[in-house]
Design goal:
By secondary structure, this protein is mainly α. Helices cover 84% and strands 0% of the residues. It has two domains: 17-225, no CATH class; 239-442, no CATH class. It has helices spanning 2-38, 42-66, 69-78, 82-108, 111-116, 121-134, 138-152, 157-180, 190-216, 227-258, 263-299, 303-330, 332-337, 343-376, 380-402, 409-435.
C-alpha cells in the first residue's frame, strides 16, 4: 500500500503544483485590479471590487461548463485516442462561442441589478464602466479555459502555470497604463482595469494556442466536432457550471446580507473570506490534477490506478487544509492584523476564522472529491450536494442564527460551516461508492 501511494505521489505532485500556482495566479489578478484601483481613489476601489464580484458571479458558469472537458479529454488520452482529444477541444471551442454572447449581455445589463440593490449612482457608473470593459475578455476567457483543459488533461501543466503567472505581469502593466493614463494613454479609471484584464486574457489565449499548435499541430481541433460532441461537453459541464455558480452566489448573498450589520461585520467577513479563499486554491489545484489522473486511469480501464489517484489526491487536500485549520484556530488575530489595525474588525475576523478552521478539512475533501468524481464522469452528484446543502441547509440556518438568534456575522459562518461539512461527507461517500464498483471497469 505504501509503495503504491509513493508511486502515485510523484506524478500527482508534478501535475498539482503547477496547477496550484495557476489557481493562485488566477486569484491574484482580481486582487491586483482592486489594489491598483484603490490607489486611484476610494470610488475606483469600490467600483472595481463590486464589478469584479458581479462579473464572476455569472462568468464562472461559463468556465465551469468547460470543465466538462476534463472527463472527455483525460479519458481519451488515457486510452491513447489523441484524435478524440482534439475533437473534444474543438467541441470546447464551439461551446465557448455559444457561451460568450449571453455572458457579455449579462455584463452589459447589470445596471438594473445595481439599481435594485440601491448602489450609489456614482459608484454605479464606474462599476458599469468596468463591467463593459472586462466583458471584452469574455470570449478569450472561455477559449483559454478550453485550451487549458486540453493541455492539462495531457499533463502539459507548465504552460498553464506560465500563462497565468505572466498574465499577471501583463495585467499590472495594463492597469498602470490605463487606470492612471500613462505613456500617453487616457486615464480610464475603473474601466481601465477592465480593459487591462481583457487584454491579459487575450494574452493567455495566445500563449496556450501557441503551445497547442507547437505540440499538437493544427490537425483535428480546427475541424467541426459535430453537435453530438458539443452536447456531450454541455452534458458534463453544465452541472459543473451550476455547482460553481451556486457556490459563488451563496457567498455573494451572505456578503450582501451582512452589509446590513455595519462595517465591522462586513469588514471582518471580507477578511475571513479572503483568507479562506486563499487556502481553498490549494485543494482546488489538486482537484484539477486528480480529475486528470483519475480520468486517464478510467480511459485505460485501470481501476487500481484511478482508485489510488483519487485517494492520494484527497489525502493531499485534506492534509493541507488540516494545517490551514490549525493556523486559523491558533493565530486568527495575527492573520487578520495583516489586513487592518482596526481592533473591532480584527476581533470580528478572528471569530470568523475560528469557524473557518472547523470546515477547512471538509472543504479540502469536497474540493478534491469533486475532481475525482469528475474524472469518472460524475458531475451531477457534486452539483446536487452544493445546491441542497448550501441553499436548503446552510444559508437558512445561517440567516436564522444571524438575525433571530442574534449571533451576528458568526451566524452565517456557522451555517456555511455546516453546509461544507455535509458536502464533504456526502462527496467522500459518493467517491467511495463509485470507485468501489469494480465490476463496471471490466
Amino acid at each position: 500500500m505504501a509503495a503504491a501511494v509513493k508511486a502515485e505521489m510523484g506524478p500527482m505532485l508534478r501535475l498539482a503544483l503547477p496547477l496550484v500556482t495557476a489557481e493562485l495566479g488566477w486569484m491574484a489578478m482580481g486582487v491586483v485590479d482592486t489594489v491598483m484601483a484603490g490607489h486611484a481613489g476610494r470610488e475606483m476601489l469600490g467600483a472595481v471590487a463590486l464589478g469584479h464580484g458581479l462579473y464572476y458571479t455569472f462568468a464562472v458558469f461559463g468556465i465551469g461548463v468547460l470543465l466538462g472537458l476534463d472527463t472527455l479529454i483525460s479519458q481519451a488520452y488515457g486510452r491513447g485516442d489523441i484524435a478524440d482529444c482534439r475533437r473534444s477541444l474543438a467541441g470546447g471551442l464551439v461551446t465557448s462561442l455559444l457561451l460568450a454572447p449571453p455572458l457579455v449581455g449579462l455584463a452589459w445589463g447589470m445596471g438594473p441589478v445595481m439599481d435594485w440593490f440601491g448602489i450609489d449612482p456614482r459608484l454605479r457608473e464606474d462599476t458599469q464602466g468596468y463591467l463593459r470593459a472586462v466583458s471584452w475578455g469574455t470570449l478569450p476567457l472561455m477559449i483559454y479555459a478550453a485550451f487549458r483543459r486540453f493541455l492539462q488533461s495531457q499533463n502539459a501543466v507548465r504552460a498553464v502555470m506560465f500563462a497565468l503567472v505572466t498574465a499577471n505581469l501583463v495585467n499590472i502593466f495594463g492597469n498602470w497604463v490605463l487606470i492612471f493614463g500613462k505613456l500617453g494613454a487616457p486615464a480610464l479609471g475603473a474601466a481601465g482595469a477592465g480593459y487591462a484584464t481583457a487584454v491579459s486574457r487575450v494574452y493567455m489565449v495566445v500563449v496556450l494556442a501557441w503551445v497547442t499548435v507547437e505540440g499538437h499541430g493544427w490537425d483535428g481541433w480546427t475541424a467541426w466536432p459535430g453537435w453530438d460532441r458539443v452536447r456531450e461537453v454541455a452534458r458534463l459541464g453544465v452541472p459543473v457550471g451550476l455547482q460553481i455558480s451556486f457556490e459563488v452566489a451563496v457567498f455573494a448573498a451572505v456578503t450582501a446580507m451582512l452589509g446590513s450589520l455595519g462595517p465591522v461585520a462586513l469588514g471582518g467577513h471580507q477578511i475571513a473570506l479572503n483568507l479562506a479563499s486563499i487556502t481553498y486554491m490549494i485543494p482546488l489545484g489538486v482537484s484539477s490534477a486528480v480529475a486528470v489522473r483519475v480520468g486517464q486511469a478510467a480511459g485505460r480501464r485501470d481501476h487500481a490506478g484511478a482508485k489510488r489517484a483519487g485517494w492520494v489526491g484527497i489525502g493531499l487536500g485534506a492534509g493541507f487544509m488540516t494545517l490551514a485549520a490549525i493556523v486559523f484556530w491558533t493565530a486568527p488575530g495575527v492573520l487578520a492584523g495583516f489586513y487592518t489595525k482596526d481592533a473591532e474588525v480584527v476581533a470580528m475576523a478572528s471569530s470568523l476564522l475560528v469557524l473557518a478552521a472547523v470546515f477547512q478539512l471538509f472543504d479540502g475533501i469536497q474540493a478534491v472529491a469533486t475532481g475525482a468524481l469528475r474524472g469518472l464522469g460524475d458531475t451531477r452528484t457534486p452539483m446536487a450536494a452544493h445546491v441542497v446543502f448550501y441553499w436548503a441547509a446552510g444559508l437558512p440556518l445561517g440567516w436564522w442564527l444571524t438575525y433571530p438568534g442574534e449571533w451576528g456575522a458568526p451566524g452565517f459562518w456557522a451555517g456555511l460551516s455546516l453546509a461544507l461539512i455535509l458536502i464533504g461527507i456526502v462527496l467522500l461517500a459518493a467517491w467511495q461508492r463509485r470507485i468501489g464498483k469494480k465490476d463496471e471497469w471490466n
